[in-house]
């Protein structure tokens, strides 16, 4: 009898092809699931994994995995207990025995991961830089992390240890490494070979109190002539000696002509503090670099693809310099400008300034005091390929201008951030984005709730501009007037000439035939929105979010909520709960960042008539258990007088109600007995306390900080049986 042929299965593929398939899987949980199929898949998965983040306790060295021999990118910055020295003498010793322990741990890591070329490590102690990087002679990329205070060493000593052990270093990231600005130049001068090899250097660190000065930038760029990416926090304020001006900018373009990525930002712009929406956007003093200098710099950096110039003082009449970017930097795709004025000042149909940078795919503008709706529309006409747009602190922008921009960019725009614009509250921002609401994927708005009267006005207002009129309201008498966008010379770029569409007052009609649903832009469904970011003032409620225009977000997976303000100015909230329970309508929501770290209050006993931070935490976390969250990052509120961000008893009790959580990261401290509440979450696998803020508390002997307490909690967590 003829036997039935066995059906072909995936295991019948040659090992080489199957190995390539598994190697193409990037999601960690998917790779772990593949490794559980059979022993063959386990071997192939381990052999093809190139990136690994260790989360175990440094005390459990016997559990160090040795099967990931192909790992080239190793992240040790999250090893438990978080923030404690990875390699460090535990006590003073004259025989060097403790150094031997550090060397042993370093050798064990090298034995487990022999071909590492990229390393991320929390370097609280100089011993980590002395003994660890030297284990991998071919190390090319290093990111150092440290939120605690800098050790008492001479300037540059730490980096000398690093550079001497890494002769092939090509990329160094210090964006989250607490140090001094004068640590960098001496180390580069003492190690010219390593400095000459550097192609990527990230010095955009929010911990710098003043940022790098002109002399320091001159040394850095002179020692690193082969840099392709440079991100550096600067001091642009002319009130300080050595401020960054014409000389520093010219040094960068002259010494580093190969740059493709350049980020220059004032340290004051790196904080999360929200600006005053009522400010006009102009500062008292002007920046001390001229438009001619900017033109010279842009002309010398012809390879630029990404540029950030975020300063703290006025840069006036910047339009001519920005026009040069289009011709001198043809590869430019991302641009961020802060405190630049005159970026778009169109006259008639003629575009100018940043609107001429037609190749841009990402544009961010902040504190542009003279940008109005007509300038914003010109940007939409000229930068027709924008996929990401961010606008912050632009007082003259209204819903009409933003809505017209969204209509012009409806084919490409998928990522929008609207922040701190006086005329763009939550409802008006969402109303302005209706033309792209079925395409947008990432969104940030401020939860400044419009009044009932304003919402009613939004529902009955004519949204569009008559673009057939000039700024003065007179009808254009010639065929290529500014308003006749689709009848001008830009027709070939934006639309086919054979399908011209006259812009009239009702922008709701634009592109209605192409949305595939037949309901225009008037609906309330945000079909592709996956990430939502919100800012909200202390004491305000989240409950009006749906009524503002976000009723239906069927694919929303991640939300970030940042609350800011001084709760000491409030006796108590107006309602019992903040409103997290209203997020139940987003059925795919699995990841949340709840940042209350910018809430200031009383950590201990509050004055009469005031609430302490524990009661405010109960207000903000009430109802979180009704959500089906898998991952939660939570920043507790702070008391700046005692430098304390600690999880309170009400907060621990409410967090334990999140029965679907698998990962919980608390960016602060907590008492051990409060942490034990979290063991009642059945599927919780990963919990960590991270004091990742400046300055991280140094007192490791308190009941909130002891490594023994954290280790006991982790041991209890790991002893539990997890069903999957």
From TrEMBL:
The lineage of its organism: Eukaryota, Viridiplantae, Streptophyta, Embryophyta, Tracheophyta. Residues 13-50 form the COI1 F-box domain. PANTHER family: F-BOX_LRR-REPEAT MAX2 HOMOLOG A-LIKE (PTHR13318:SF267), PARTNER OF PAIRED, ISOFORM B-RELATED (PTHR13318). SMART domains: LRR_CC. This is COI1 F-box domain-containing protein. It holds the Pfam family F-box_5. InterPro entries: COI1_F-box (IPR041567), F-box-like_dom_sf (IPR036047), Leu-rich_rpt_Cys-con_subtyp (IPR006553), LRR_dom_sf (IPR032675).
């Amino acid at each position: 009898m003829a036997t039935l042929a066995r059906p072909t299965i995936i295991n019948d593929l040659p090992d080489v092809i199957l190995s390539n398939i598994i190697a193409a899987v990037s999601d960690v949980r998917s790779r772990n699931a593949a490794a559980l199929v059979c022993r063959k898949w386990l071997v192939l998965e381990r052999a093809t994994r190139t990136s690994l983040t260790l989360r175990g306790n440094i005390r459990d060295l016997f559990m160090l995995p040795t099967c990931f021999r192909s790992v080239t990118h190793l992240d040790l910055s999250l090893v438990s207990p978080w923030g404690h020295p990875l390699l460090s003498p535990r006590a003073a010793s004259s025989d060097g025995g403790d150094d031997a322990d550090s060397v042993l741990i370093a050798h064990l890591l090298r034995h487990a991961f022999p071909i590492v070329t990229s390393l991320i490590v929390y370097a609280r102690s100089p011993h980590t830089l002395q003994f660890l990087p030297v284990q991998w002679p071919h190390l090319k990329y290093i990111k150092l992390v440290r939120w605690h205070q800098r050790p008492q060493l001479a300037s540059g000593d730490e980096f000398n240890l690093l550079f001497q052990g890494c002769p092939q270093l090509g990329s160094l990231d210090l964006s989250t490494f607490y140090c001094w600005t004068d640590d960098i130049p001496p180390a580069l001068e003492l190690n010219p070979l390593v400095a000459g090899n550097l192609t990527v250097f990230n010095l955009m660190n929010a911990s710098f109190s003043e940022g790098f000065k002109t002399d320091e930038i001159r040394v850095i760029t002179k020692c690193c002539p082969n840099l392709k990416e440079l991100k550096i926090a600067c001091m642009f304020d002319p009130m300080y000696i050595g401020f960054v001006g014409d000389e520093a900018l010219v040094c960068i373009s002259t010494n580093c002509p190969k740059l493709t990525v350049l980020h220059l930002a004032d340290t004051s712009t790196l904080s999360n503090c929200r600006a005053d929406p009522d400010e006009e956007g102009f500062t008292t003093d002007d920046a001390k670099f001229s438009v001619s200098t900017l033109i010279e710099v842009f002309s010398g950096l012809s390879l630029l693809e990404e540029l950030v110039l975020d300063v703290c003082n006025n840069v006036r009449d910047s339009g001519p310099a920005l026009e040069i970017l289009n011709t001198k930097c043809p590869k430019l795709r991302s641009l961020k400008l802060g405190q630049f004025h005159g970026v778009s000042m169109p006259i008639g149909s003629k575009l100018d300034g940043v609107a001429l940078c037609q190749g841009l795919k990402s544009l961010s503008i902040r504190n542009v005091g003279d940008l109005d709706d007509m300038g914003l529309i010109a940007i939409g006409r000229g930068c027709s390929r924008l996929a990401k747009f961010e606008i912050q602190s632009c007082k003259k922008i209204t819903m009409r201008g933003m809505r017209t921009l969204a209509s012009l960019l409806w084919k490409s725009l998928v990522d929008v951030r609207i922040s701190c614009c006086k005329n763009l509250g939550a409802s008006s921002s969402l109303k302005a984005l209706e033309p792209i609401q079925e395409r947008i994927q990432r969104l940030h708005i401020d939860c400044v709730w419009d009044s009932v009267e304003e919402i009613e006005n939004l529902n009955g207002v004519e949204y569009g501009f008559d673009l057939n009129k000039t700024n003065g309201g007179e009808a254009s008498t010639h065929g290529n007037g500014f308003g006749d966008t689709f009848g001008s010379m830009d027709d070939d770029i934006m639309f086919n000439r054979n399908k011209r569409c006259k812009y009239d007052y009702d922008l709701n009609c634009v592109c209605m035939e192409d949305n595939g649903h037949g309901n225009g832009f008037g609906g309330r469904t945000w079909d592709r929105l996956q990430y939502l970011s919100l800012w909200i003032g202390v004491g305000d409620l989240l409950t009006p979010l749906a009524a503002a225009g976000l009723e239906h977000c069927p694919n929303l997976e991640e939300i970030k909520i940042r609350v800011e303000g001084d709760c000491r100015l409030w006796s108590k909230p107006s309602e019992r709960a903040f409103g997290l329970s209203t997020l139940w309508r987003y059925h795919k929501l699995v990841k949340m960042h709840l940042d209350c770290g910018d809430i200031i209050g009383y950590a201990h006993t509050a004055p009469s008539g005031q609430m302490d931070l524990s009661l405010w935490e109960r207000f903000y976390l009430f109802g979180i258990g009704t959500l089906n969250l898998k991952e939660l990052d939570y920043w507790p509120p702070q008391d700046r007088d005692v430098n304390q961000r600690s999880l309170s008893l009400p907060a621990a009790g409410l967090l334990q109600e999140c029965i679907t959580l698998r990962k919980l990261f608390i960016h602060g401290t907590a008492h051990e007995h409060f942490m034990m509440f979290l063991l009642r979450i059945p599927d919780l696998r990963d919990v960590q306390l991270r004091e990742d803020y400046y300055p991280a508390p140094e007192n490791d002997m308190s009941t909130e900080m002891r490594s023994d307490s954290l280790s006991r909690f982790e041991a209890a967590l790991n002893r539990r049986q997890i069903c999957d």
